[in-house]
User: Fold these one by one.
Assistant:
Number 1:
Amino acid sequence: MNSPLATTPVFTQDRKKTISVLTLAFIAGALTVCGFAPFHVYVIPFFSLAILFQLWRHAPTTRLAFLTGWYFGFGFFLLGVSWIYVSLHTFGSMPAPLAGLATVLFCAFLALFPAVAGFLVAWRRPSPIILFTLTAPALWTVLEWMRSWVFTGFPWLSLGYSQVSESPLAGLAPVGGVFLVSLLLCLSAGLIALAWEKKSQAIYPLALLMGLLFISWNLKSIQWTQPTGTVTTVSLLQGNRLQDEKWRPENLITTLKLYRDMVLQSHSQLIVMPETALPVFLHQLPPGYIEQLAEHAQHQQGAVLVGTVEQTGAGVYFNSLVALGASSRPAYRKTHLVPFGEYIPLRPLWGWIVGLLAIPLQDMSRGASNAQPLFIAGQWVALNICYEDAFGDEIRRQLPLATVLINASNVAWFGHSIAPQQHLQISQMRALETGRFMLRATNTGLTAIINNQGQVVSAAPEFTTTRLTGSVPGFKGVTPFVRWGDQLPILISIFLWLSGFLLHRYAHRPTSPL
């Protein structure tokens, strides 16, 4: 007796063709990663997305469209966030098979977002013009945005990041942020797919594509923000304390001495340490340590931002940046915590993972979500810690008051993977969106100064103990993204999807016999 699956279109005589389609989707997804750092071939996503849209267009069933989207997403995330395995196994001490399984399952979950997009695209079977220019770009963008907040969010590898900062589409970032860039990237891919579909009339979609790129390129010349006139000298410290050594008690004194000496040898107004540079509670630092750093900051008429952990009560501690130099010691406390890295969600269900991971301080507390910029070293500084700068709509909460952005990170968790370069690219997008300099102080790299155009002015080599210095101007003003956040691209996407839905419905309305 034949299996019930044998009667479905996917598993009949077209089985080989189906396997070829899914294989092509997987390869196209994996190749899309080459558009991101450290490869920076930003044109690749235009064509890999065009391939995906063509596969959706010719999928005979919604099931195959779903699977095509899933295979594309699986290849995309499996290659793009493979560094999760490094975090779990190499530095988190999770057994290799379990770490590998966890990474694969996580990527399989993330692949559901493009899979759902594929299902919805094929559901109504719109015409090629509607599918390529309205439905597919809109659905991809909305689902990519949903990925940024579902289960605390994972916006890593949003397509728009691949266009920082050389691509013509980068000019859209100050207007609508990373998701507007994603939307126009998808629309551009759709126009390429349409040109392929309608070869005899390819001139029309290609002309529209050139027009979109030309407009976006010219947006890059607009100065959305203006210098405040205040320039601050900065030193960004990169201590290069490897993750598997950093928290060992026998290395504590060496680490404290390293950062103390780096601070005292810096003559900048603003000195920034990486995230948790001092692997000990703030109140447990040796007598006189804080006072010595604060005195140096006052002598420089500035501040030292200390990456440390604050404990305010039994079992209550925060991942913090503490500003030394002012009598009040103002601090920024991290708000958007990393699941399983800084807190255990649904602890009764997932608490058993604690025993598998050698991660210190797994139950941190959240800082206030309405944190305001700190006035230090002559600038209003918007602080964020590590993973937080992946959430542009949260970064803009401290604007337009902030004149400079600072991110303190510890990406030693990712070893020699591609994650640090990807994280730098995310910071470049935040600088573009807000029209302000972004300073990155990291433990092992990439420590960098990024200007208000999203360009890396200077960067320290990875895995070196060094101090990156420079002069940073403050900027004021409001970009459209700072004003509206993610609302603009999402509203445009919804409008495009509704337009496609109504046009499709109008085209297939029943005709009157009269």
Number 2:
Amino acid sequence: MMTYSWKDRLRNFAGIQRAGAFAVTLIVIILFLPKESLFKYEYQVNQPWKHEKLLAPFDFGIQKSAEEIAIEKESIRSNQPLVFTLDSEISNNILSDIERTYIGSSVDTAGGCDSFLLVGLELCSRLLNQGLIERNSEAFQEIDPFDDILLYKNNQLVRLEHSKTISIQQFIDSLNQLSMVAADSVCSQRLTSVMLTNLRPNALYDDSLTQRLLFHELESIITIEGKVSKGTTIIDKGDIVTSAAYKTLESLRAQYQERTISDTGFQWAIIGQIGAISILLGLLVLFVYMNQNRLYNDPRPMTLTLSLLSVSFAISLIAISSSAISIYAIPIGITPLLLRMFYDFRVSIFTFVITILIVGIFTSNPLEYIVIQLSAISFATLYQAASTKRSRMLGTALLVFIGYSIIYTCISVAQDGTLTGVDTTLFGWFAINALLCTLVFPLIYIVEKMFGYISETTLLELSDSNQPLLKELAIKAPGTFQHSLQVANLCEKIANKIGGNTVLLRTAAMYHDVGKMNEPKFFIENQLPNNNPHDDLEPEESAMIIVNHVHQGVEMCRNQRIPIAIIQFIQTHHGKSQVRFFLKKAQQKAELAGRKVDINQFSYPGPLPKTKEHAILMMADTIEAASRSLKKYDNPTLDALVDRLVDSQREDGQFDEAQITLKDISDAKAELKLALHSIYHQRISYD
């Protein structure tokens, strides 16, 4: 039985990571799945019914629309009377305070005013029993004079008109009328003063009881306005879905979902949804496997695409379940725009297609949603793909808004036949969506740090000759800098012919020889005529200096935090080839001395090129450097040079691990020949 070591298992980490990303994505989607089952019919107002005749499968009630219920609730809220509770304890305290204050302020020891006090207390008790409303409360200030209020006393609610409730001023007026018939004006004045001091509201606003009554009224709203019997024709094929028919269909949808859950069990709906989503996710994985094998072998692309898909789905489902946010405000276009910064157009668009298909399953109008999203965002992604400048993102955001607006307007006019059906509020959501799409650039930095990627925008910044390393290279090793520029041009020409990331290649070509700046005079492109320092060195020493420029270039780039993708080009641009000139020189000397040469001293450490881009740089670098040493620059000589060097690299196995075909190599040689012909073409004499 075959056993596997921990090293063997570690080699399969990419497969484990891809499987983990797939599982996590599926779990996230399951967590955000809606709680109701899907309805198998799609329909829109003022559009023909595209299905067969629909008969009511069971009795169901026609539900009021959400707008109708909302209007009814608002009417109940605006007409709900405020409740004031009569507090008998406050009433008793008021009477006690009046009596105590009145007696304490009296200087009539004969008690001549006692009878007047009793009459006043009786009047006060009678008026307090009617309720002295708390008028300084915020709730009371908001009601109109002709609105009703409810007074809760003796465990009963009494409806009163606001304008007819008793105020403190009315209380005092009643007391003054009593004073006019009183025999002793001194007693009446004293009682009036005491009343003003001690009177206070005894009917206080009761928010709890008011809210309970409001809740009861809201709960008592009847949401059904009609009934459809089983077997009744709801709509026939070709009929226009009117507002009334739409309301009936929406009622059937709600009842259908409830019946599905109660009759078949909710778990079957979940299983069906998961099955459909799993198939769509599987298509995405299969597409990457069949069309982007290099990306598939790297677990990061699959992890990134599935992560963006799951986040887009989760946020979109939150918007679908919310009445406050439109689904078109969700910047789902960030997914293809961000992926386009790292991969080609096919990967970004196919990922987006799968994303909107999964989200579209749960939208109310899937076809409209998919058409609008796919059209608007595809145009924006194509536009962004044409340039990698950051300033172009503003144009992309504008194109997102214009795309959404035009496509939505066209679809709306096609549905309604007029512009009156266009929902202008959606244009605001489109604008929010477009603005949020500009978050792509901040997200680029996060993705680069989390996944170790390097975007085309970052590559363009790195290829600027004002970058510290490149500026230092131009000063210390101007010949090498010019060589790098020529290699970059050759790489770009080859990549345009056989395919490849031209921006990555151009940037890598600018950095591939930065290690030479430590000892620039030992490299031929920086040497003056008849001044070769290798003449004073042994072949082994010369080879060590030449080979060491790879190590030094790697260290320089690491110190400057150059991305690993560029460093890999430095490591592989010579592969495991030999420094043939000094190897041959050492072999000649060794043969005369009767000893053997250690070939490892004259070999680059590698590794071999891993990608097509690595192989392109190796070919371009070798050909450009070798072409400088030719004594004759006619076309046959240049062609022979290209054939000899590239075929030698292939025969040595330098391209064995790179994803490059024999046809690619043949096309690359043809492009190199054309480039050399144009560089070294015959010029006229100016003598």
